[in-house]
Amino acid sequence: MSLADLPLILAVVLTLAVLLAWVRLLLWQRAAPPAQRSRLWRIATLLTLQPLCAALLYFTVLPPMLPGEAGTMVVATAGASEAQARDIDAADRMVVLPEAGEIVDSERVPDLATALRRHPGTRRLRVIGAGLEARDRDAARGLSIVFAPPQLPAGVVRLDPPARVAPGSAFQVGGRVHAVEGGTVELLDPAGQRVDKLKLGKDGEFVLRGSARDAGLATLTLRVRDAKQNGIEDVQVPLWTAADPAPRVLILAGAPGAELKFLRRWATDAGL
Fold this sequence. Notes:
Elements: H1 6-31, H2 40-61, E1 72-76, H3 82-86, E2 93-96, E3 107-108, H4 112-118, E4 124-128, H5 134-137, E5 144-148, E6 155-160, E7 170-178, E8 184-188, E9 194-199, E10 205-211, E11 216-225, E12 231-241, H6 258-269
Parallel strand pairs: 1-2, 1-4, 2-3, 4-5
Antiparallel strand pairs: 6-7, 7-10, 8-9, 8-11, 11-12
């Protein structure tokens, strides 16, 4: 017999005890002389109180487990910083998942399920860093979760590179720069020559334009400067220029002539 079987065994024993008590009470009532028999309301009260006493005895021996409040569990994930780890309440408990860096005065756990088993009663999570991995999302279901992402660094946080273009076609590079209000962003070709330049606004959105040249893969440079023209970041932007296949021309003529000669020379010079 294991401890897991104890609630079932206790319930069976108490049920049998209640049934035996009912049978004893009813047999006594039947065998007693009419003058000594109890009134019906007293018998009904005794029959009702016996299962009630059995239920109270059951919950006295095995009290129900009430969910406790263990405060908020702060879960450090990949990209969590020391500043975020220090910004917690004294009642909160910090756990660090394997993806997070080294955070002092914190408890390291292999996964979120292990942390919840070590600290039963947890009902709230505050996730700092990049967020929970796929292995931890099932364990977090049913809990109240607050996500505190890390602060974005100053520089390019979104880049929309150009699609494949044809030689001589126009292209554009878009994106967003964070925390460089009043700065500039410029696009440089592989030789370092400026292709386009734009001053950044409050939202940091930008769109730079240029024109493709020879076919092949070229690497452009997206350069971000602050308001004082100090370099913030250089980002490499690939540009794939693919030449379209040359069109073919079918010439139908009755016989060779001067016009056909000059037409063939024009087609050859045009790359047809």
